Structure formats: C-alpha cells, structure tokens
Amino acid sequence: MSDYQASYEYAHSLTAADPLAGFRDRFYIPKAPDGSDCVYLCGHSLGLQPKTVRSYLEEELEDWARLGVEAHFRARHPWMPYHRLLTEPAARLLGALPIEVVVMNSLTVNLHLMMVSFYRPTRERHKIVIEENAFPSDQYAVKSQIQCHGFDPGESLLTVAGEDELESLLGREGASVALILLAGVNYSTGRAFDLTRVTNAGHAHGCRVGFDLAHAAGNLHLKLHDSGADFAVWCSYKYLNAGPGNIAGCFVHERHARAQLPRFAGWWGHDQETRFRMGPDFHAMPGAEGWQLSNPAVLPLAALRASLDIFDEAGIERLRAKSVRLTAYLEFLLLRQADLGFSIVTPADPERRGAQLSIRVPGKTRDICERLAAQGILCDWREPDILRVAPAPLYNSFLDVYLFAERFAGLVV
Ligand SMILES: Cc1ncc(COP(=O)(O)O)c(C=O)c1O
Q1: Is residue 92 part of a domain?
Q2: Which atom of ligand 1 lies at the shortest distance from residue 134's CA?
Q3: Which atom of ligand 1 is nearest to the CA of 248?
Q4: Is the CB of residue 233 below 6 angstroms from any atom belonging to ligand 1?
Q5: Phi, psi of 130 (to 5 degrees)
Q6: Does ligand 1 lie within 6 Å of residue 159's CB atom?
Q7: What CATH number has the domain bearing residue 95?
Q8: What is the CATH number of the domain that holds 321?
Q9: C-alpha dist (Å) from residue 311 to 36, 100, 250, 319
Q10: pLDDT tens digits, 237-290
C-alpha cells in the first residue's frame, strides 16, 4: 500500500464508500472530552447501545403496566414464548439450526450447564483441554468441574496454543481427554480457532468438543452446525450490543436434540405441553431449550431483540467482509509505525482473527489507555502489556481506525 493509503483523505474516501456506514447512526456514540463523538474501539468488551433498545424495552414496560400477568399471553409480543423471538435471529447469526439454539442465563452459567452434560469423566478419560491463556472465568469453571468429579486439575487440565499442538496432544493422549473447550476467539491475543478442525480432531479421539464464543459471536461469520461442535456458549454484551451483563446464548448440536443426556433441570426446560400440569418428573424439551432452567427475563431479551434485528438487517456476511477490511487497514497503519517499539500479537491471517488486534507495548502501562481516552479514543488494556483494539463494523469507520493509529503513534514514541 502507498503513502496515499495512509492519509486522512484515503480513510475518508473509504468511509464515504462504505455501504454499511449508515448503521453507525443506529447507535449512541459516547462523547470525547471535547464533545465530539469518541473513537470507540471497545466492542470486544461492551458493545454500544442501539438507539432502538429504548423503544423495545418501553413496549414491554407498557404492556406490563397495562396488562400485568395477562401480558404473558396478551402483550404485543406475548411473554410466554418471548424467548423464541430470539431463536431464529440467533441461529442465523451463528450458523445454527433453530432447535440448536436457546437464549438464556449468562455465559459462565451456560458453560457449567453444558459441562454437566458433556463433561462425564471416567478414571480413564477425565482430562479437559483448554487454550493457553483462556479467559479466567473458563479456567475457574473447568477446574471446579474437574474437582466436583473428584479429579485434580493438576493432572486433568491441559492447555494448547493452537490446532497443531492440539492434534499432536490428542495423538499422544487423546484416549484420556473427555472434553476440549476452546475459545472461538481468544480474549487476549485475538486469535481465532478453526472450529471444524478442532471438532474433527476431538471427535476422532472420542472427545466432546465445546466452544466459548464470547469474542466470536457477532464478530466472525460462524457456521456452528456445520462445525459439528457438541456445544457452544456466548454472551451478548460484546459484539452483540445487547447491554451490560445481558442474557447469553447456548448451542447444543442437533444430534443431541433428543438424547437423554444427564443435565441440571428446571421447569422451563420441561416439555411445554405438560409444564403447567406441575408434575414431579422432568421431561426435557427437545433441543437446546431443554437446558433452560427458569422462565426467561423479558426485559433483557427485549434489548437483545433490538440488537439482533440490526444484525439481521446488516447481515453477518456483509459485516464480516467490512470487518476484515477495517482490521486489515488498522494493521497496515500500525505496521507503518512498527519501529516505534510495539508488536501485533494477533495473527496476520484474516482467517485466524476477528475484528480485534492485540498490540503488545513493552514497558508501557494501563496509563496509555487513559491518555488515549483523554484524546477521545476508547480501547482497553490487559495485563501485562496488551492494548486491545477492535473496530466493530456496525458502528466503526475507516476514519476511526485512522484516528486511532495517528494518536497511538503520538503516545508510543
Ligand atoms: C472469553 C470469555 N469467557 C467468559 C466470560 C465471562 O462471561 P460472563 O461474565 O458473562 O459469564 C468473558 C467475559 O468477558 C469472556 O470474555
């Protein structure tokens, strides 16, 4: 690429030609100290608020006020089956069948529920493989599951850096591995795993395979069903823009839809035809819905609906195509300044990453984020020396990327 491509004019021309640029206006953009829109590059942590969230919530608040309990059946969108309004949009977004998807709980809760069903260790096969530097909540969850079954995480928990290492590990000790649980995209490095390759490797050795898609949902163009994974979980507050701590999702592959898997049960997972007979014995609904515990919280679901409607309109294929270009542009601008003493730890191959680039800045501290924020740039920091920067294709522009690169360079000299 040329000097012109590193210019403000070029970034401006890319922004003007972007067919998805109009989606930015659907979101509230936080303000910089000078009152202008800030450059928000934190969609990997908390996505921005769609302007429509308020009206989706107000509709449910009004129906609650107007109808009370009757709203379960008579609301404009009756609450009894409300969670199903999310099923098809979520399935489309993740490349899953509707029967494979349910929106419920939060991510770590869903991870535990999935491990209750898919981590069934025996004396011979008791190990769990996770990726190096997995998100701490996942590490705590898998260690506590291992301990609940009377095993020692020191022996039963293994880590791998990537697919090659996983395949050779399975070649050596696959018969002792019960579960492989990897991220879709690692939270720290931004590295994306090949779901199909991981799943095939695991299944070839008789292991169950699940994924934490916290940083992949709404970011990558996923084909979860085709990957063959046994299960997956994700949250909705990052690239999915559904609001802080909002309701999560869970995928269980179709081949398990009617299997009598051991599980923790609750009344909302019970066969809906007989649920209100209030009988003592649990009969699971087919599919992912059979893992539900409680009746769903409609207000969080309404916020997620507002967001998924935007994803449906934009289309994950188009969003991913823009995202690949946005992140490549960010990489190009940064690499022109690489002599400034930082490196990009995220893989260069677009297939092996999502929107995020993780920039290692040796010798710098979290203070760099505060200095960027003072100039209207929001990104975040992961110890010891990683700056995470993610242009989200729904609301970020090529100009945002340009402004970040320019101001970052001013701080790392
Ligand atoms: C990769 C990953 N897994 C799990 C979690 C935990 O999610 P929750 O607090 O919704 O359970 C996070 C939170 O950021 C995450 O990034």
Answers
A1: yes
A2: 1
A3: 10
A4: no
A5: -125, 170
A6: no
A7: 3.40.640.10
A8: 3.90.1150.10
A9: 26, 19, 18, 9
A10: 999 999 999 999 999 999 999 999 999 999 999 999 999 899 999 999 999 999
**pLDDT single digits (tens) 165-195:** 999 999 999 999 999 999 999 999 999 999 9
**Three-state SS for 289?**
helix
Q: What is the value of pTM for the model shown?
A: 0.97
Q: How far is the CA of 135 from the centre of ligand 1 (A)?
A: 7
- Asked if residue 321 and residue 307 are part of one domain, the reply reads no
From the CA of 371, how far away is ligand 1's center (Å)? 26
Same domain, 300 and 343: no
pLDDT computed for residue 338 by the predictor: 73
Q: Whose CA is nearest to atom 13 of ligand 1?
A: 214
Provide the 3-class DSSP secondary structure of residue 179: strand
Ligand 1 binding pocket includes 107 (Cβ within 6 Å): yes
Query: What is the distance between the alpha carbons of residues 404 and 41, in angstroms, rounded to a whole number?
Result: 9
Q: Is 42 in the pocket of ligand 1 (CB under 6 A)?
A: no
Is there an atom of ligand 1 within 6 Å of 235 CB?
Answer: yes
Strand order in the sheet with 386-389: 343-344, 357-360, 386-389, 380-382
Q: Is 102 in the pocket of ligand 1 (CB under 6 A)?
A: no
Burial label, 215 (beta-carbon count in 10 A; 0-12, 13-18, 19+): buried
Domain of 293, in residue numbers: 81-312
Q: Report if residue 62 sits inside a domain.
A: no
- Residue 192 maps to a domain: yes
Name which residue sits closest to atom 5 of ligand 1, judged by CA.
Answer: 137
Query: Given 282, 312, 342, which residue is the final one in a domain?
Result: 312
Q: Are 238 and 353 contained in the same domain?
A: no
Q: 334 and 219, same structural domain?
A: no
Identify whether 70 is part of a domain. Answer: no
Number of domains the chain contains: 2
Mean pLDDT of the chain: 96
Asked if 387 and 361 touch (Cβ cutoff 8 Å), the reply is yes
Domain boundary among 294, 312, 330: 312
Task: Give pLDDT, residue 1.
Answer: 65
pLDDT per residue over 41-88, tens digit each? 999 999 999 999 999 999 999 999 999 999 999 999 999 999 999 999
Ligand 1 centre distance from Cα of residue 255 (Å): 27
